[in-house]
UniProtKB/TrEMBL annotation:
Record-annotated membrane-spanning stretches: 21-44
Keywords: Membrane, Transmembrane, Transmembrane helix
Designated name of the protein: Uncharacterized protein
Record keyword Transmembrane helix present: yes
Provenance organism: Amphimedon queenslandica (Sponge)
Length: 304
């Protein structure tokens, strides 16, 4: 069985005269192939990873090659999105064009060609040679990529992604009492053009509780009950209790957290006059509902 060899000729000058040396370096074909593959690997772009950050709300288009979010109906060049980490950024982000959603699920939508047909979805690696050409899409949790692996001559136009987000969207922060907000909803079809918007106006009033009541149960417990405010329901409630025993001027205060209605407040000394204040706990704030109730617990008989 023959060997493949690589012969290197090196001609040197000696002090006495000229001498020619023949250096013969023998490499196995397997070793040579290994070296060539290693050199090729160092020249290749890495596939890259998905963008780590998703939007806090709504949907956005993200272009990692430029490291920026882009607005709808933006024009980009083919040289700005790829199927690998083309610009070798420090975070190794794959330089596809990404549609990202705050709805962190795997199926957030579908990419469409300019003619309205779906861009093929591919489950393999970004760099898999069997991936559709010139563009394909890949789904991940909360985002879907539009990747390019070849020139797109003949495929230019307005690409769009139709999201499959829920028709219910909860806004839990950033709203201020006493303000008026207008929300618009626009749908996109396969023709890439948006529908007319539908809007709703919401006025956020200051939350109020009007039926906070206290009922004596036995000698020390008090039963408290209330209905949630109709405008913005808090995530939980706190109750602040201030009690003063008869013939005493000082108050004893307690704070009960994460309570629900109905709630039993215990440990109240006999012969006490108590006020109970209801506090609503929201994501970034607490609201005193200006709802106080007064109770005089059972006054036991004085022993003789």
């Amino acid at each position: 069985m023959g060997r493949n060899i690589l012969i290197l000729f090196i001609h040197t000058k000696h002090a006495i005269g000229y001498c020619s040396y023949l250096l013969v370096c023998v490499y196995s074909l397997k070793m040579l192939r290994t070296l060539l593959l290693l050199a090729g690997f160092l020249l290749l772009r890495v596939e890259g990873q998905t963008p780590p950050a998703l939007p806090n709300n709504s949907v956005r288009l993200f272009l990692p090659y430029e490291d920026r979010a882009i607005p709808d109906y933006s024009m980009i060049y083919a040289r700005q999105f790829y199927n690998v980490d083309q610009n070798n950024d420090v975070n190794n982000i794959n330089d596809a064009l990404w549609c990202q959603s705050a709805n962190n699920v795997s199926n957030i939508g579908v990419w469409y060609y300019p003619n309205g047909t779906e861009v093929p979805l591919f489950d393999g690696s970004f760099t898999d040679s069997s991936a559709p050409s010139p563009v394909f899409s890949k789904r991940f949790s909360g985002q879907i990529a539009l990747a390019r692996r070849a020139g797109i001559s003949g495929y230019e136009g307005l690409y769009n992604v139709g999201t499959t987000a829920s028709t219910t969207f909860n806004i839990t922060s950033g709203l201020i009492e006493g303000s008026t907000y207008t929300f618009y909803v626009v749908s996109y079809g396969s023709a890439s053009l948006p529908s007319g918007n539908a809007s709703v106006i919401l006025i956020i009033s200051y939350p109020e509780v009007n039926d906070f009541t206290a009922t004596e149960i036995t000698s020390t417990p008090i039963a408290l009950a209330w209905s949630p405010p109709t405008d913005v329901v808090p995530t939980s409630y706190n109750i602040v209790t201030n009690c003063r025993r008869v013939c005493e001027s000082s108050f004893t205060s307690t704070n009960e957290t994460s309570v629900t209605s109905p709630h039993t407040s215990t440990g109240i000394p006999p012969y006490s006059l108590c006020t109970f204040d209801l506090i609503g706990v929201y994501e970034d704030d607490t609201v005193a509902f200006n709802a106080s109730t007064v109770a005089t617990p059972f006054t036991g008989m004085i022993s003789k």
